[in-house]
Write a structure and sequence with these properties.
The structure holds three protein chains of three kinds. By secondary structure, chain A is an alpha/beta fold. Chain A has one domain (90-434). Chain A has helices spanning 2-12, 38-47, 52-66, 106-115, 149-154, 162-168, 170-176, 187-195, 436-444, 449-460, 462-465, 470-484, and strands at 29-31, 90-92, 124-125, 128-129, 133-139, 142-146, 158-161, 200-204, 213-219, 230-235, 240-248, 255-258, 261-266, 271-278, 290-301, 307-314, 319-322, 325-328, 334-343, 348-351, 354-357, 363-373, 377-386, 394-404, 409-418, 424-433. In chain A, helix 9 packs across helix 10. The longest helix of chain A is centred in the N-terminal third of the chain and has 15 residues, at 52-66. Chain B contains ten helices and ten strands. In chain B, the strands form two sheets. A six-stranded mixed beta sheet of chain B has the order 6-7-8-3-9-10, sandwiched between helices. Chain B has a four-stranded antiparallel beta sheet with strand order 2-1-4-5. In chain B, helix 4 crosses helix 6 (150-164). In chain B, strand 1 and strand 2 (17-26) form a beta hairpin. Chain C is of the alpha/beta class. Chain C folds into two domains: 11-266, no CATH class; 374-425, no CATH class. Chain C has helices at 11-23, 32-47, 62-65, 113-118, 134-142, 372-380, 385-401, 407-424, and strands at 90-95, 98-99, 109-112, 145-151, 161-167, 170-180, 185-194, 200-210, 215-223, 229-238, 243-250, 255-264, 270-279, 284-293, 299-308, 313-322, 330-339, 345-354, 360-368. A ten-stranded mixed beta sheet of chain C has the order 2-1-5-7-9-11-13-15-17-19, with helices on one face. Chain C has a nine-stranded mixed beta sheet with strand order 3-4-6-8-10-12-14-16-18. In chain C, strand 1 and strand 2 form a beta hairpin. Chain C is globular and about 70 Å long. Classes of the chains: A alpha/beta, B alpha/beta, C alpha/beta. Chains in contact: A-B, A-C. Chain A binds chain C through residues 73, 386, 388, 401, 403-433, and chain C through 55, 58-59, 324-325, 327, 337, 339-342, 344-369. Chain A: Residues 218-460 form the SUF system FeS cluster assembly SufBD core domain. Chain A: Residues 151-210 form the SUF system FeS cluster assembly SufBD N-terminal domain. Chain A: Belongs to the iron-sulfur cluster assembly SufBD family. Chain A: This is Cysteine desulfurase.
């Protein structure tokens, strides 16, 4: 039993050095004055050279936000945020929007190199064809560069920062922005509508299969700055796109706010695959610092036979509050949610999904794997709702939690609502620790305890890992290992 | 190679005494059979040798090549060359057999200060060993032990033994659940590993396995003690007369 | 929420307040009992009945659903006991809330609950369990009577004891504290039934205390009338190595909330909880379980089977909490529903809240219609469709009841189930 105590002791000594992305870049910035007001919103809108209607939209959201209250139903606990102590806009000097690679400050390019993000459009490397990924790099409040734009354009795919899209494709923005997550949806989404600064816009026209993976890489660098990104992805009839986002931030003692909104629209026969590897700074061993990650993500399967699939690997952030959801409006549409949520130290996660079945023959699948270690709390919260007219709806949910150590918590809160007799809904959840038998067996073969646990954990999360695009699966697996370092002997 | 001195051990959780003053010496190159009726402590002994946390040694010592191993965890013991072929190999969903083998082999090499294997070298070794044991390569693509039949599991244990090249092999009821053909394959696998610097402990209930893996010494375990030792004829005697005879004499 | 702006009371809330004001002089007990009653009522008056914003009432917005509360009758209706559910059971009558203090059962201590209100010993137990315990508040402020029962240590009561609660129109608020002494064994049937079919508001709390090594069977059979509101609550405390088999059958009522608030506080104890919800008509039935495994080495299994006909709405909330250090907890819960109509609905919220690592906990929930393969198989053997359906539905729920050891009880409960299904299917 001694080894167990040792495990628990070591859980307490999480070393911040494990966070590989905690460096800060000293770069000259343009900042909005501190605080939140109509003037700040006008400032942001002016910086982005937005049309008048966009400013109106923002101001309207701001007025609504002033009347709203911060939600308290999630199992997370944090001191009240003073929204007037934050900066809402920060951008590298002379950078109000994306430029070509040649124009980007070399200091910034070095940041992405250090983070391992490919910003070069090289296709051949020593004769080996590497899978190509187009990247939109967002640094604090602006997109600094978007790669492969021209090549994507040839295929008819629009991939650019949302700020550019507002100027260049106002008709699409007017049609779709806020059509999945209304401006007044919830407290953070409304705040985002008022102050969002950048994010990505993807439009895949009818019948087009996007020729490469798209990804956006978010980096918060500036102190006391909130990041409010907004992403909108539209797949027209028969289109397909796979998109991945990644996020990191420097280590700081203060908490920082990240409140994003992501909207996906899939028309008839379209498919959107959205993957997230979330690795915001989680805070230190005492629970000091770290990102508050309050995110609204929702996909609308608007068309018949459309499909939206969310895959998330959540290892970072001090607090995570996100429920990537699918509205299954079109007949025969399908929603999927695959999640790995790892919490260690003092991290708090309240995450899950909503599958809202409205159309006929809609189906959804939820696979959630939660791993709690240290003194963290990890909650799965998910809703499956079968509406009255959703004939022949199907849902399968599997939700497993693993506990490492006896100072952490694992919680499962599903909401299942069925109003149609032809529905078939199946939910199963388990909570346990790593089996001693498995651990002993692996260790008997000479694998040290920490690796033995990593091995078993990787087996535990495999169903979800294999949903990630291949290039990211390996990265994600490593990340999980790193997040759990120090949690075992 | 192995010297067990006056070993007393119990189940950590409830304090049930299982091993009560056991003495046993196994030399390098020796095949030692440990026999005994159900509940005599045979499997417990294999767990204690390999360092399972559920058991507590309260008295005595286990010397391996002259050093006490009581303070070592299972992985440390394994990298020193102690291998246990489990009676009931554990199923681990999601963990691919090949991946597991590679990690295990390389961790042990690392612990011994050896170079890690290259992937082609690793694959070659596994293929060769699998062919010897007539293991279908498809089986190795499945998650570890998941959905394996009883015989497949036992063969996979011997495969691991061949690949990890241990110095002290402990076979816990390896014959249980095997038909005669599978038993021969497994025994051949074990015999192929016999060498002057390697010892094998065969834990079994029946004499059957010992026809194929011929022991140098046979020890009868009862109530946590070795009550009689002898050569391979002792196993035949047990087969003919049962345990009652010996137990009666010992008491 | 420190602001004490008074809310505008709904007609039902107003009726509860008025009932209390009219009866306060006449309700048994004074001193601490009255102080507690005042406080509970004041809670209702200031914060109202719970709405769906209160997580524990997420699917049963009591404030909206409880439209009206019938005024209590000036004089209790004259009611007579009916035959017990199983032959040979010893009946403790509760006729429109009034108990028969003269009833005695050999080897069992039975007293009127009103006595403990009058002498003040009931005061502490009247408090609500938490701020969302609306049933505790309503019952605690308005309770008049019930039975206080003790099964002496070491004794075994062979025949089941039936708490036979029958009511007419108006309001009935009862309470049944029952202590199972160390090593004792007994079976209780808590039976609620409308005698007249007229609308009533019934609140009833059973307070079960299991001392060391006690083994109890407790069956709740709720067959209220089509106009009734039934607010039931069972509170259970487990002692070391004690066992409880708790069966809950809902087969009536218009608005029903049956709460099971269980604390497993004794090491080595075991809960077997089974439930059947037969839902039909235009009704709303909510079973809410809050189960705390608070100490190491305890087991529980929970199985609920629900069938939904007509425009009925059903709710099951099942929270399993495992406290820090409650290692080796083994808790498994399943909730299976047959939703047989597009006009009905069923909502499930099974929760796990786990703070100890060496546990095996799980829950499963399914909602579906009858399996067509099963139906086809029966039909292919010549059974007509409606008959085949009835067979399958019956089997689905009866399976749970068959786990009871007492054959007479199984037979009686199966009778209740088939009679209900015949009427609704």
């Amino acid at each position: 039993m001694a080894a167990v105590q040792e495990t628990i002791d070591q859980v307490r000594q999480i070393d911040v050095d494990q966070y590989k992305y905690g460096f800060e870049t000293i770069i000259e910035v343009d900042k909005a004055p501190k605080g939140l007001s109509e003037d700040i919103i006008r400032f942001i809108s002016a910086k982005k050279q937005e049309p008048e209607w966009m400013l109106e939209w923002r101001l309207d959201a701001y007025q609504r936000w002033l009347t709203m209250e911060e939600p308290t139903w999630a199992r997370v606990d944090y001191p009240k945020i003073d929204f007037n102590e934050l900066y809402y806009y920060a951008a590298p000097k002379n950078m109000t929007g994306p430029s070509s690679l040649e124009e980007v400050d070399p200091e910034l390019l070095r940041v992405y190199e250090k983070l391992g993000i490919p910003l070069q459009e090289q296709e051949m490397l020593a004769g080996v064809q590497k899978p190509r990924v187009a990247v939109d790099a967002v640094f604090d409040s602006v997109s600094v560069v978007t790669t492969f734009k021209k090549e994507l354009q040839k295929a008819g795919v629009i991939f650019m920062s949302i700020s550019e899209a507002i100027r260049e494709h106002p008709e699409l923005i007017k049609q779709y922005l806020g059509s999945v997550v209304p401006t007044t949806d919830n407290y953070y989404a409304t705040l985002n509508a008022a102050v969002f600064t950048d994010g990505s816009f993807v439009f895949v026209p009818k019948g087009v299969r996007c020729p490469m993976e798209l990804s956006t890489y978010f980096r918060i660098n500036e102190k006391n700055t909130g990041q409010f990104e907004r992403t909108l992805i539209i797949a027209e009839e028969g289109a397909y796109v796979s998109y991945l986002e990644g996020c990191t931030a420097p280590q700081r003692d203060e908490n920082q706010l990240h409140a994003a909104v992501v909207e996906l629209v899939a028309l008839d026969d379209a498919e959107i695959k959205y993957s997230t590897v979330q690795n915001w700074y989680p805070g230190d061993a005492q629970g000091k610092g770290g990102i508050y990650n309050f995110v609204t993500k929702r996909g609308d399967c608007r068309g018949h036979r459309s499909k939206i699939s969310w895959t998330q690997v959540e290892t970072g952030s001090a607090i995570t509050w996100k429920y990537p959801s699918c509205i299954l409006r079109g007949d025969d549409s399908r929603g999927e949610f695959y999640s790995i949520a790892v919490s260690n130290g003092y991290q708090q996660i309240d995450s899950g999904t909503k599958m809202i079945h409205l159309g006929k023959n809609t189906s959804s699948r939820i696979i959630s794997k939660g791993i709690s270690a240290g003194r963290s709390n990890n909650t799965y919260r998910g809703q499956v709702s079968i509406h009255r007219r959703a004939e022949n709806a199907r849902n399968f949910t599997n939700c497993d939690s693993l506990l490492i150590g006896d100072k952490c918590g694992a919680h499962t809160v599903p909401y299942i609502e069925v109003k149609n007799a032809s529905a078939q809904v199946e939910h199963e959840a388990t909570t346990s620790k790593i089996s001693d038998d498995q651990k002993f067996y692996v260790m008997q073969r000479g694998i040290p305890e920490e690796e033995a646990i990593a091995l078993i954990v990787n087996g535990f999360v495999k169903d979800v890992i294999q949903e990630l695009p291949m290039e990211f699966a390996v990265e994600a697996q490593k990340l999980i290992g790193i997040s759990l370092e120090g949690s075992v002997g | 190679m192995l010297e067990i001195k006056n070993l007393h051990a119990r189940i950590a959780e409830d304090g049930t005494e299982i091993i009560r003053g056991l003495n046993l010496t196994v030399k390098a190159g020796e095949v030692a059979a440990i026999m005994g009726p159900n509940g005599s402590g045979k499997s417990t002994l294999s767990y204690i040798l390999s360092g399972r946390e559920d058991y507590e040694v309260t008295e005595g010592d286990i010397l391996y090549n002259g050093e006490s191993i009581l303070d070592l965890d299972p992985a440390e013991r394994a990298s020193k060359g102690i291998f246990l072929a489990f009676q009931y190999p554990v199923e681990i969903p999601g963990v691919a057999t090949m991946q597991f083998l590679k990690v295990a082999m390389n961790e042990q090499r690392k612990a011994r200060g050896e170079e890690e294997l290259t992937t082609p070298d690793f694959i070659r070794r596994v293929k060769e060993a699998a062919a010897e044991l007539k293991i279908d390569p498809a089986m190795l693509r499945r998650p570890l032990n998941v959905g394996f039949s009883g015989g497949e599991k036992k063969r996979a244990e011997i495969l691991q033994m061949a690949l990890l090249e241990p110095k002290l092999c402990i076979l816990d009821e390896t014959d249980s659940g095997l038909d005669i053909d599978a038993l021969k394959i497994v025994a051949d696998g074990v015999n192929a590993l016999k060498s002057p610097d390697r010892a094998v402990i065969v834990i079994t209930h029946y004499q059957r396995l010992l026809e194929y893996i011929v022991p140098d010494t046979v020890h009868v375990l009862y109530k946590g003690q070795v009550i009689r030792s002898g050569d391979k004829d002792l196993a035949l005697e047990l087969e003919a007369n049962g345990y009652a005879d010996i137990i009666g004499k010992a008491a | 929420m420190n602001i004490h702006t008074p809310i505008r009371l709904t007609p039902a809330e107003t009726a509860l307040v008025e009932t209390y004001t009219a009866q306060v002089g006449d309700l048994p007990g004074d001193g601490a009992v009255t102080v507690t009653r005042d406080r509970l009522l004041n809670d209702i008056k200031t914060s109202g009945l719970p709405t769906r914003r209160v997580e524990a009432w997420h699917y049963t917005d009591l404030r909206t659903l409880l439209r009206n509360v019938p005024a209590p009758l000036a004089a209790a209706p004259s009611l007579a006991t009916i035959a017990p559910l199983v032959e040979g059971a010893q009946v403790l009558p509760v006729l429109h809330g009034a108990v028969d203090a003269a009833t005695s059962i050999d080897g069992v201590e039975v007293a009127s609950f009103a006595d403990s209100l009058v002498n003040g010993t009931a005061a502490a137990g009247l408090a609500a369990l938490d701020k969302d315990d609306a049933i505790g508040k309503i019952n605690g402020s308005l309770v008049r009577d019930g039975y206080s029962i003790a099964i002496p240590a070491g004794s075994t009561v062979e025949a089941p004891i039936e708490l036979q609660a029958l009511h007419g129109a108006g309001q009935v608020h009862t309470r049944f504290p029952v202590t199972f002494g160390a090593g004792s064994r007994a079976t209780f049937i808590e039976r609620h039934r409308s005698a007249t079919g007229e609308a009533a508001l019934v609140s009833s709390i059973s307070d079960i205390m299991l001392e060391e090594g006690a083994e109890a069977v407790w069956i709740i059979l709720q067959e209220q009338g089509a106009e009734d509101t039934h607010l039931g609550q069972v509170r259970v405390k487990f002692g070391t190595d004690s066992k409880l088999r708790l069966f809950v059958i809902n087969a009536g009522g218009k608005l029903v909330r049956q709460e099971l608030r269980i604390d497993v506080d004794g090491e080595g104890s075991e809960l077997t909880l089974r439930g059947v919800n037969l839902l039909g008509g235009e009704t709303h039935t909510d079973v809410t379980l809050v189960l705390g495994h608070n100490v190491p080495n305890t087991n529980s299994t929970e199985i609920f089977r629900n069938v939904v006909f007509d425009r009925a709405r059903g709710v099951f909330q099942g929270m399993i909490r495992v406290a820090p250090d409650a290692q080796k907890t083994d808790a498994k819960m399943a909730c299976n529903t047959l939703l047989l109509t597009d006009d009905g609905e069923f909502s499930v919220k099974p929760e796990l809240e786990i703070f100890a690592d060496d546990v095996i906990c799980g829950h499963g929930a399914t909602v579906s219609d009858i399996d067509n393969n099963h139906l086809y198989y029966l039909q292919s053997r010549g059974i007509p469709e409606n008959k085949a359906r009835a067979m399958l539905v019956n089997a689905f729920v009866a399976e749970v009841v068959e786990e009871l050891e007492d054959e007479k009880l199984v037979e009686a409960l199966e009778g209740v189930i088939s009679a209900w299904l015949e009427k609704h299917a």
